[in-house]
Structures are given as C-alpha cells and as structure tokens.
Amino acid sequence: MIKGVFLGLVLLFGGTAVQAAQPQPVELIRSTADYVLKQVRARKAELEKDSSGIYDLVQQKVLPHFDFRIMSRGALGKYWRRATEKQKNEIAHEFQELLVRTYATTLLNYSDQEIEYLPYRGKPGDKRVTVSTRVHNNGGPPIPINYRLYRQSNGAWKIYDVVVDGVSLVSNYRGSFSAEVKKHGIDGLIATLQKHNKQQRGV
User: Fold this and answer.
1) Rounded to whole angstroms, how far apart are CA atoms 129 and 144?
2) CATH no. for residue 161?
3) 62-78 pLDDT, tens per residue?
4) How many other β-carbons are positioned within 10 Å of the β-carbon of residue 20?
5) Of the four, 21, 34, 38, 173, which is 20 to 30 A from 13 by CA?
6) Rounded distance, CA 177 to CA 91, Å?
7) Helix, strand, coil % (nearest 5) of the chain?
C-alpha cells in the first residue's frame, strides 16, 4: 500500500484536472501540478539520464507546500514527546529526505491520469481542510485520494498528510517508526533513517 501512497503524492502534483476553479487549497494543488508536470514532460529524457534535476524540482516546487515537522510528529506518535529538540529536527530532516527521494523516483515513472476534484466542503474560516479527489487510472476503479491541509497564521496552506484509498501516509510510517523505537530507541530510528538515505544517495 505504501506504493499507492506515493502514487498519491505524484498525482497530487501531476495529472489532468477534470473540474475547474476551486477554493484556495485546491488551487494550490492545481497550480503546482501544472508547473511540475510541464517540467517533467519537457525534460523527461534529461531527467531520466540525470535524476539530480528531479530532486531539485521537488525541493523547489513541491516541498515548500508540506509541513514535515508535523508529519514527523504524527509518524513518531507518542514518542515525539520523549524526543529532544535535536532529535525532532533530525527525524524531520531524515523523514523529508526519505519522502523526497521516493517521490522523485516515482515521478519519473509517472504516466498521465485524470484527477477528479470532488465538491469542496470547506468554509472560508476553516483552519483545517481536506481536498478530496478521485484518480481515474487505466480503466480501473477510481482511487480516492484525500489531502489534509492546515492554514498558517499568514494565510498560507500546508499539507500535513495524504490519504490514499483510506491509508494515511503518516499512519503508514507510524507502525514502522514505533517498532524501531521500541527496539533501538529514538537514536536508533534516526540512525536507521540516515543509513537508508545514505544508501539511496549512493554514499
């Protein structure tokens, strides 16, 4: 199911939207999608030869819309309160790199799909909203993908979770993070994430 979650991330920022103008949280998703997908299509051959470009694209245009500290807090669950500030920062940093690399790799393999934006139920004063979509993929049943966002004090929206077919990205990692902390402590989890990310970088 974790592959489905990352498919959700890819579809969040790439695809053909079925419906027109939407409130601000949906427009955030749409405008980012238009830019990222245009870049991937135009630079497909270049990015397949040198993947560093796709990482730069994700870092610059996608990551600013996510709150990885809140996502890390949710993934760590009850253990977040036990972590020092240094540990929290390290977990957020490593978790971000993990998602960036997995997302970027998946994005390179992306093929066009249609995204249907369901009726928006949020109110103007809401501080937390869910953008609900359905992805139509190769004639199969549509995949429900929901994006959870919160509004910052400056009015900007940040994504703090993605739910694909009922499975939360944050909750998906909570089980593995919890198991690692129980075995090796919070520093052990950090070490495991660091090791994985180094391997992905080829270090």
Assistant:
1) 16
2) 3.10.450.710
3) 888 999 999 999 999 99
4) 7
5) 173
6) 10
7) 60, 15, 25
Residue-wise pLDDT tens digits, 149-179: 999 999 899 999 988 888 899 999 999 999 9
Strands (E), the chain: 16-17, 114-117, 128-136, 143-151, 157-164, 167-168
Q: Strands 16-17 and 114-117, how do they pair?
A: parallel
pTM score, two decimals? Answer: 0.81
Give the chain's domain count. Answer: 1
CA distances from 102 to 22, 52, 127 (A): 29, 13, 29
Range of the domain at 48: 2-201
DSSP string for residues in 43-94: THHHHHH-THHHHHHHHHHTGGGB-HHHHHHHHHGGGGGGS-HHHHHHHHHH
Residue 56 CA to its chain's centroid (Å): 15
Mean pLDDT score across all residues of the chain: 82
The residue type at 49 = K
Question: Given this model, what pLDDT does residue 18 score?
Answer: 41
Q: Is the predicted pLDDT of residue 4 greater than 50, yes or no?
A: no
